[in-house]
Amino acid sequence: MQEKVSIIVPIYNVRAYLRRCVDSLVKQVHTNIEILLIDDCSTDGSADIAKEYVEKYPQLCRFIQRGKNGGLSAARNTGMEASTGEWLAFVDSDDWVTEDYISAMYDVAVRDQSDIVMSSIYYYYSNDNYKEMSPFSNLTTESTQKEKIAFCRPYAVTRLFRKKFVMDTGLKFPTNVWRAAEQGLIIPLLTRTSKISIIRKPMYYYYQRSDSNSNKNYKNVDVSFYPKSCENVERNSVPGFEQEIEFRSIVDLMYGMIMIMIRSGRNKSEICREIDCFNEHRPGWGNNPYMSRMSKGKKIFIEFAKRKKILMLNILILGWDIVRRIY
Predict the structure, then answer these.
(1) Is 284 left (phi over 0), alpha (psi -120 to 50) or beta?
(2) Is 117 left (phi over 0), alpha (psi -120 to 50) or beta?
(3) Mapping DSSP to helix (H, G, I), strand (E, B) and coil, where does residue 236 land?
(4) Beta-sheet pairing, 5-11 with 87-90
(5) Of 55, 111, 183, 281, whose CB neighbour count within 10 A is largest?
(6) Which residues lie across from 65 on neighbouring strands?
(7) Which residues of the chain are under the pLDDT cut of 50?
(8) Residue 90: closest CA among 79, 105, 104
């Protein structure tokens, strides 16, 4: 008999996208599901749309109204607490999935006795322009737990989690950052189990909205979430994976944060202060063994950042942007 999967959908001002999302969920091949529609105090009528689906599909959909706006992590945590299934899945309300999204991951979970199953993803841009992406590099189910910790993108979506495993850890999505919060839960979960399966099949359409948190690079954007997110990962992970956690900090702070600082117009002195701070707190990071497996572009970027070659970083980013526009 199929076990129940709780699909958690946080909602906040997504009136233009919500129907597409929920329509894809009610059509799931795996029929033993509950769709938890968690409204985080929307002001655009999104809650009314969610309630329509509860009326139309009462056997599948549940509506939960949060008392105050708390952000994506808080809404996800509300859904976890209210869930009644044996498995947890997260779908963002501006995205959508294929009909076999749940069934494909569930079948693998049962076969492998997994605690976590991860699948590939489509990045959807507009007008049926989309691209398959691998959130786990070239890894497979047979890859080591340490490799998965080092290289898997810390998405909450494109994942299926055994609920008992997650709840027994006592961990939740961190609410102290406005962006990149999920890595403070997902990476620590990867450190707590070796039962991690990978499906190289894209079934999730990740809509690339220019106004989403993950795409905000406006002038002087607040980047304080980066070190806080890394601290969340370090605090919530179990011992034994220090090199892997350090490598993730290198990618986040010496690549991700510096990239956004340059794109958002930060001055050289401020960028150099962040590099000095990283060097002070993580001496010897340049010898991390996982750096040899980075892409050539990231290696070059991080080497320029390490040497504080800010002009070269600007030129590198400009070149990348030109190539992206062309292709």
Answers:
(1) left
(2) beta
(3) helix
(4) parallel
(5) 183
(6) 39
(7) 215
(8) 79
